[in-house]
TrEMBL record:
Shikimate binds at S14, K15, S16, T61, N86, D102, Y212, Q240. This is Shikimate dehydrogenase (NADP(+)). Residues 6-88 form the Shikimate dehydrogenase substrate binding N-terminal domain. It comes from Marinomonas mediterranea (strain ATCC 700492 / JCM 21426 / NBRC 103028 / MMB-1). Residues 233-263 form the SDH C-terminal domain. It catalyses: shikimate + NADP(+) = 3-dehydroshikimate + NADPH + H(+). GO terms for cellular component: cytosol. Its EC number is 1.1.1.25. NADP(+) binds at G127, A128, G129, G130, A131, N151, R152, T153, V154, S155, K156, M210, G233.
Length: 266
C-alpha cells in the first residue's frame, strides 16, 4: 500500500487523514495516509527519511511550509510564486519536488463547488501574509477584472503588488462595493474583524473566509449582516487535499460529499 503523510506541529487534530481516506474509498485507490509530528530541530531529516523509506507523498502544514519550500530540489511555478510548499513528492531521479495546492484548492472550491465565478469580478482580498500569497496566482488565473489586497501593514500588501498584478491598499482607502471579498487575514482565528467599512459590501457581494469553524466566522457574520452571501474555508481544506490527491494518484475525487461529511461532524 502506498504511504502518504501530513507533517505539522501540532498535528493530532488534522482532518487530512480522514479526507484522504474518503478520497481513496471513493476512487478505489489503495493508499494509507497518516500523520507525522514535525520536529523543529529535524524537520528536513524527517522529510528525507520518509521518502528514503519508500513514502510516496507528503503534505506539509503549519509551521513548516516555508522550510519545505526551502529544501525542495524542484518547485512548481505556483509553489515558487507562493513562497511555500504544502505538497511533496519524489521526481523521477529521486529529487524532492514541491508544489502548493492551497490556492488551486480554494479556487476550485469557490468556482466549481460553490459555483461562484471569479472571472471578470472586482475582488478584494484581506490580509497579506502567507495564506494570501499562496492564493494570488490561482485567483489571477481566473481572469478577474481586478484584485485589491488590503492589509493592516500596507507595506506587506505593496510587496505582493511587486510580485502580482494586484493593487495594494490600506483598509481606510478602500472604495466598495466589491463583487467578491476573500478574507485571508488570520484575524478570524482570534475572533477579530479587520476594520472593514460596511460600504465594501452590497447584497450582490459574495464573501469567502479562508478560515472555518462550527459557527460562522466573525467575517462571515459581518458580511451576512449586510445582506451578502458567502462560505467559509472548510471546502478549501478539502480542495487543497483533492489537488494533492490528484497530483499523486492522477484521479480527481469528489469534494462536495467530503465537505458535507466534515461539516456534519463539526
Ligand atoms: P498566514 O500564514 O495565516 O497568512 P501570517 O503570514 O502571519 O499568517 O499573516 C497574517 C495576516 O493576517 C497578516 O496579513 C496580518 O496583518 P499584518 O500584516 O498587518 O500583521 C493579518 N492579521 C492578523 N490579525 C489581524 C487583525 N486583528 N486585524 C487585521 N489583520 C490581521
Amino acid at each position: 500500500m502506498d504511504q502518504y503523510v501530513v507533517v505539522g506541529n501540532p498535528i493530532a487534530h488534522s482532518k487530512s487523514p480522514a479526507i484522504h481516506a474518503e478520497f481513496a474509498k471513493q476512487t478505489d485507490q489503495s493508499v494509507y495516509y497518516g500523520t507525522l509530528l514535525g520536529e523543529e530541530e529535524r524537520f528536513e531529516a524527517q522529510v528525507r527519511d520518509f521518502f528514503s523509506e519508500g513514502g510516496k507523498g507528503m503534505n506539509v502544514t503549519v509551521p513548516f511550509k516555508e522550510r519545505a519550500f526551502a529544501m525542495c530540489d524542484v518547485l512548481s511555478k505556483r509553489a515558487e510564486l507562493a513562497g511555500a510548499v504544502n505538497t511533496l513528492m519524489l521526481g523521477k531521479n529521486g529529487e524532492i519536488y514541491g508544489d502548493n495546492t492551497d490556492g488551486a484548492g480554494m479556487v476550485r472550491d469557490i468556482v466549481h463547488v460553490l459555483n461562484q465565478p471569479l472571472k471578470g469580478k472586482r475582488i478584494l482580498i484581506i490580509g497579506a501574509g502567507g495564506a494570501v500569497r499562496g492564493v494570488l496566482e490561482p485567483v489571477f488565473a481566473q481572469a478577474p477584472l481586478s484584485v485589491t489586497v488590503a492589509n493592516r501593514t500596507v507595506s506587506k500588501a505593496e510587496a505582493l503588488g511587486k510580485i502580482f498584478d494586484c493593487v495594494a491598499s490600506s483598509f481606510d482607502a478602500l472604495e466598495g462595493p466589491f463583487d467578491v471579498i476573500i478574507n485571508g487575514s488570520s484575524a478570524s482565528l482570534s475572533g477579530q474583524l479587520p476594520p472593514l467599512k460596511d460600504e465594501l459590501v452590497s447584497e450582490h457581494t459574495w464573501c469567502y473566509d479562508m478560515m472555518y469553524g462550527k459557527e460562522p466566522t466573525v467575517f462571515l457574520k459581518w458580511a451576512q449582516g449586510l445582506g451578502a452571501k458567502g462560505a467559509d474555508g472548510l471546502g478549501m481544506l478539502v480542495g487543497q487535499a483533492a489537488e494533492a490527491f490528484f497530483l499523486w494518484r492522477h484521479v480527481r475525487p469528489e469534494q462536495a460529499p467530503v465537505i458535507a461529511q466534515l461539516r456534519s461532524e463539526m
